[in-house]
Write a structure and sequence with these properties.
- The protein is built from 20 helices and 32 strands.
- The chain has 825 residues and is an alpha+beta fold.
- A nine-stranded antiparallel beta sheet has the order 5-6-7-8-17-12-11-10-15. It has a six-stranded mixed beta sheet with strand order 18-27-28-32-29-30. Strands 4-9-16-13-14 form a five-stranded antiparallel beta sheet, with no helix packed on it.
- β1 and β2 form a beta hairpin.
- The protein is globular and about 85 Å long.
- Bound molecules: 2-acetamido-2-deoxy-beta-D-glucopyranose (10 copies).
- The site of one 2-acetamido-2-deoxy-beta-D-glucopyranose has 2 residues, from loops.
- Keywords: Hydrolase, Signal.
- This is Glycoside hydrolase family 92 protein.
């Protein structure tokens, strides 16, 4: 017996290897549950790439922004619209379904209808949850199993009921659908109707966006299959009736929004009941059309297989060698990429606000997070989607008047800093996105950001433009009688506006508009006007950080104000640093960290900081003393800015300092909100070994975390390759000793986007010590100013603190909490 078994085992292991080699499946390394607890706020459910339908179980967690959580909170419903990774209020989660195997004694009024009371029936164990790209599956402690999958606008749920026990009620399943959303933001006069014959439920309600202004109306259409309809009706608060089939419900002045909705009861629970629900921003009829067209026959297996196939194709451009690599790193990597393809959402054809032939993308939530690495990653992996997004941003400018800085649920979202859509457009332009993009309008849009102040700059454009133009900075306590917004963040707005202007200059240069190019290059230097060269930074215990020269707030009369450079750092738990009226002069980040945000002129910044060695020790101090926090986006580029000081080895080491220590492939494994996939893209780019300086045609080279990486461009079909010679899976040999690009010696520490479009090959020879590779002035990435003080090799390699000495803090999560309070949300 022993021998044949062994043979079979050998044979199948071999077959497995052959299979693995021929059909590498990136989906094997995607875990959608990463970030489903500990404030990751990731949407872990079923969706197509950029899909409008996003089905998942919703919990009553305080951190339910993405719908589902694995933090002990109970399921209160199953809904079909979500955002991913966001802060702010919980987003969407409208028109939740809930299922019961039966109502006690057959009395519908003994089933729990309101969301709050349903929670008692929604307990589950984390081990009874599974998620794969395109499907989500949960079994509640009640024994009800809910599986879900989606098409672009519609979700298909399959509820399986526990078989009758001897002393239990006969199964007469009741499925309800309510008129709430995750944030309980429903406004007056929502409607719902249920067809007594078919059980079809349709309805509409007005809701609030989760981090923005205004309201939006959403419609839905739900159908059932799998069991005979017994009866149906509507419920209001805790009471229901099978006599009434239509309802218009108030928000109510107390205990709002008043629970209300419809339900259908079935004669049998022996077979699973399929529930198909679709939404539309246009009408309930349109929602029904989506559902009928996309899921005509309620075939769960077919719909989920189609979703899986779409995901596999979408993820296939990036292939890494799995040889010797810990699978948890592979899961980190591919799951990170996956999370960048959830939001923004493609609502083309679903925009009731204007009619246009252009695509419409929503859930730019927010561009302050997305511009840095998420949208640049998609420019490599899915340029067609980014082209659609850019067209949509420009079309939004055409119809709304300005590019958004944040946009969700067809509403204007709050601007966090600069007009960073300017960076998104520049990034797309320098990387050659052209197809169908009207760049004249695109240029007009970014120029409007720079030239015309909106009356209300809460949600678009820039504030303080008169001062910006006359003084060359945004003053603290500005006098602005033309436009109105939260008068904080004068330092971070100045730095971001300066970079935004550089981005405008680049588009101008490419379009041959030399006067505009000169003009915006000039104002892109405005960041220097807030640099106070004798400013020191003292810890609150009196210890001097030893660094001099920091950005500082400045008044209208040009005298300096003061903000402690450590305020709003990761270690400052006292300051208010978000969009509150009491916020500081830097947004969600310290002067220390914003002190590196001059992405276009690192050379001048390095000179101001005293040369490359001083720049490097300041950057080390930023990371090693816990001032920065990798869980918030301004930190991303600082990991790699050593490249500009001629120390690319230190960028590589810093990337390994953060990954995997701060990113583990577990539900609680993200260091903060995923922010629409921003964190995911940071992980993906860092591990891939090319990090973008967004808005510029520059990727900073570090060794990939894998022996090789192949990236096939979806449009040119050329494959870009990076290969590590002397690859060391223990990551001690992470320093580039020499490199070739397409077979020729290459010493520059960066490449441009043609690496991807033309499918070049970079071969990196690694060693355990820092080398001279990429360290000379001619090797450094482009910078507006000239590199100075690089004659001698910069200081010797210092040891950095061990990652495990670090503590994570939730400083910014707390600030989002108080933001909600201050905005009255
Ligand atoms: C949940 O999963 C555990 C195993 O992890 C299993 O024993 C149990 O039966 C499941 N519970 C339900 C309600 O399916
Ligand atoms: C809701 O309906 C009531 C009754 O028809 C009406 O008085 C009220 O103005 C409506 N509210 C809104 C916000 O439309
Ligand atoms: C109930 O709603 C349905 C569907 O919207 C509609 O056709 C019907 O006329 C409504 N009935 C009443 C009594 O309002
Ligand atoms: C990348 O492409 C090369 C050349 O086709 C191939 O030899 C290598 O196995 C590929 N690597 C991966 C990780 O797919
Ligand atoms: C893989 O990484 C995980 C998480 O860091 C670690 O717990 C595990 O021991 C590693 N496995 C191997 C084989 O090194
Ligand atoms: C967006 O949706 C429209 C309509 O459903 C579709 O035609 C288009 O291909 C989608 N765009 C992308 C990038 O997925
Ligand atoms: C003051 O705090 C800083 C930062 O935590 C620390 O590095 C330094 O050693 C402290 N100084 C004293 C005297 O405790
Ligand atoms: C400039 O304005 C600030 C803030 O109002 C004030 O404190 C300061 O004294 C003024 N400086 C001069 C020189 O007027
Ligand atoms: C931040 O500023 C406040 C005053 O607003 C000060 O009390 C606090 O010590 C500062 N925090 C740090 C870390 O410097
Ligand atoms: C690498 O650096 C270490 C410590 O500075 C040194 O002992 C060692 O000889 C170096 N290795 C090589 C190959 O240069």
């Amino acid at each position: 017996m022993a021998l044949p078994v062994l043979l079979i085992a050998c044979w199948s292991a071999l077959a497995g290897q052959v299979l693995a080699r021929n059909t590498f499946d990136p989906l094997a390394y995607v875990d959608p549950l990463i970030g489903a607890s500990n404030g990751g706020n990731v949407f872990p459910g079923a969706s197509l790439p950029y899909g409008m339908a996003k089905a998942v179980a919703d919990t009553d967690s305080g951190s339910r922004q993405g719908g589902f959580t694995m933090d002990g909170a109970a399921v209160t419903g199953f809904s079909t619209m979500h955002d991913s990774g966001t802060g702010g209020n919980p987003s969407l989660g409208n028109f939740a379904l809930f299922a019961y195997t039966s109502c006690p004694g057959g009395d519908i009024n003994r089933c729990a209808f309101p969301k709050k009371t349903r929670a008692a029936f929604g307990r589950f164990r984390n081990s009874n949850v599974s998620a794969k790209p395109g499907t989500f599956d949960i079994t509640l402690n009640s024994g009800i199993r809910a599986e879900m999958t989606t098409t672009h606008h519609a979700s298909l749920f399959r509820f399986t009921f526990p078989s009758d026990g001897a002393d239990e009620e006969p199964a007469r399943p009741l499925i309800l659908q309510d008129l709430t959303d995750l944030a309980d933001s429903r406004q007056d006069n929502a409607t719902v109707a249920v067809d007594p014959k078919t059980g079809r439920i349709t309805g509409s309600a007005r809701f609030l966006p989760s981090f923005g202004a205004g309201t939006f109306v959403l419609h839905f259409c739900t159908d059932f299959k799998g069991a005979e309809v017994a009866d149906s009706g509507v419920f209001v608060n805790s009471r229901a009736s099978t006599e009434v089939h239509n309802l218009t419900i108030s928000r109510s002045i107390n205990g709002y929004p008043l629970p209300g909705g419809a339900f259908v009861r079935f004669n049998s629970g022996a077979e699973p009941i399929l529930v198909r629900t679709a939404t539309s921003f246009i009408s309930a009829e349109r929602a029904c059309e989506h559902a009928e067209k996309e899921i005509p026959d309620f075939d769960f297996t077919a719909v989920s297989k189609a979703a899986t196939d779409v995901w596999r194709a979408k993820m296939s451009p990036i292939k890494v060698s799995t040889k010797q690599v810990n699978s948890s790193l592979l899961t980190n990597f591919y799951s990170g990429i996956y999370r960048t393809i959830i939001n923004p959402q493609n609502y083309t054809g679903e925009n009731p606000l204007w009619s246009s032939k252009e695509p419409y993308f929503d859930s730019f939530y927010c561009i302050w997070d997305q511009f840095r690495s998420q949208l640049p990653l998609l420019t490599i992996t899915d340029p067609t989607a980014v082209t659609g997004m850019v067209r949509s941003l420009i079309d939004t400018y055409r119809h709304v008047g300005w590019l958004p800085d944040c946009r969700m649920s067809l509403s204007k979202g709050y601007t966090q800093g600069g007009s960073n859509a300017d960076v998104v457009l520049a990034d797309a332009h320098v990387k050659g996105l052209r197809e169908g993009i009207n760049w004249d309008d695109g240029f007009a849009a970014v120029v409007k950001d720079a030239e015309v102040e909106p009356y209300d700059w809460c949600c678009e454009g820039r504030g303080g433009l008169d001062s910006w133009k006359s003084l060359g900075y945004i003053p603290v306590q500005d006098f602005d009688y033309k436009g109105f917004g939260t008068m904080t963040r004068s330092i971070s707005r100045t730095l971001e506006y300066a970079y935004n202007d550089y981005c405008i200059a680049q588009i101008a240069a490419a379009l041959g508009k030399s006067a505009e190019k000169e003009k915006y290059l000039e104002s892109s230097g405005n960041w220097q006007n807030l640099f106070k060269e004798d400013q020191t930074s003292i810890w609150w215990n009196g210890t001097d950080t030893g660094f001099t020269g920091f950005f500082q707030p400045r008044y209208l009369n040009k005298t300096w104000g003061f903000q402690d450079p450590l305020n709003c750092s990761n270690l400052d738990t006292a300051s208010v640093c978000s969009l509150q009226n009491t916020g500081r002069e830097t947004f969600e980040s310290s002067i220390w960290e914003y002190g590196f945000f001059v992405p276009h002129d690192q050379a001048t910044l390095i000179s101001l900081y005293g040369g490359p060695a001083a720049f490097v020790s300041r950057l080390d101090y930023l990371h090693d003393s816990g001032i920065t926090y990798i869980g918030n986006e301004p930190s991303f580029l600082t990991v790699f800015q050593y490249h500009y000081a001629g120390r690319p080895a230190l960028s590589a080491r810093r990337a390994h300092f953060y990954i995997p220590a701060f990113f583990s492939p577990t539900p609680g494994g993200l260091p903060g909100n995923d922010d629409s996939g921003a964190m995911g893209s940071f992980v993906a780019f860092s591990m891939m070994g090319l990090f973008p300086n967004p808005g510029q045609n520059v990727y900073l080279i570090t060794p990939p975390f894998f022996e090789s990486v192949n990236i096939t461009h979806p449009l040119t079909h050329r494959t870009a390759r990076i290969r590590n010679v002397n690859f060391d899976p223990t990551y001690k040999a992470i320093y580039i000793q020499s490199a070739t690009l397409d077979g020729k010696l290459y010493t520059k520490n960066w490449v441009d986007h043609s690496f991807f479009t033309e499918g070049k090959e970079l071969v990196l020879t690694l060693g355990r010590n820092e080398s001279a590779w990429g360290t000379k002035v001619e090797d450094l990435p482009p910078s507006l100013g000239a590199y100075e003080g690089f004659t001698k090799r910069s200081g010797s390699l210092r040891r950095t603190a061990a990652p495990d000495l670090w503590r994570k803090t939730a400083a910014f999560k707390g600030q989002f909490g108080s933001l909600e309070e201050s905005l009255g949300m």
